[in-house]
Design brief:
Elements (H helix, E strand, L loop, with lengths): L10 E4 L6 E4 L5 E5 L2 H7 L4 E7 L3 E4 L3 E6 L5 E6 L6 E6 L4 E4 L14 E3 L16 E2 L6 H11 L3
Parallel strand pairs: 3-10, 10-11
Antiparallel strand pairs: 1-2, 2-5, 3-4, 4-9, 6-7, 7-8, 8-9
């Protein structure tokens, strides 16, 4: 299993134009790649990636736009983005205790390695995954298993 050298908190990041900045002051509970068609469209790529953190552990400075929608899981979500450059910053299942940071917006991304891959039934056919790539969920994610694997991956 790949070990992750978790950096010191806070984690910092922001949008493409720099008008929106954030700080993550709580340790993330998991990091995964999502291959649902919604994430493919949002990212303009083969998958989206998600760093899940306790919502109270995120401080955002700057104006956010909110896009209410339905996520790949079929549950209602709120997605946030910078109104100036359109960069997606977060999403959250309505009423959920966790906020998902789009980790490509972190200032330092060098330490990231996903605990697994979700909604792989709709992954692009050229992406090949194996057991070495972590937990693989064809459909709905096994969030407890992803959190457990992430916890085991973080170097002590």
């Amino acid at each position: 299993m790949k070990k992750v050298s978790f950096p010191d908190l806070p984690l910092t990041g922001g949008c493409e134009c720099g008008k929106l900045r954030y700080r993550v002051t709580a340790k993330p509970v998991t990091y995964y790649a999502c291959h649902c068609t919604v994430c493919q469209r949002q990212s303009g790529s083969a998958f989206g990636s998600s760093l899940m953190v306790p919502a109270e552990g995120v401080e955002i400075d700057g104006e956010l736009e909110i896009f209410p929608c339905t996520g790949g899981s079929g549950r209602p979500q709120e997605k946030t983005f910078c109104p100036s450059c359109g960069c997606r910053i977060t999403h959250r299942i309505l009423g959920g205790e966790f906020l998902v940071i789009k980790p490509g917006t972190l200032d330092d991304r060098s330490w990231l390695h996903p605990a697994g891959h979700i909604f792989t039934a709709t992954k692009q056919p050229w992406i090949e995954l194996s057991e070495d790539d972590g937990i693989i969920c064809e459909d709905a994610p096994d969030m407890p298993a992803l959190r457990e694997r992430w916890s085991a991956m973080i170097a002590k």
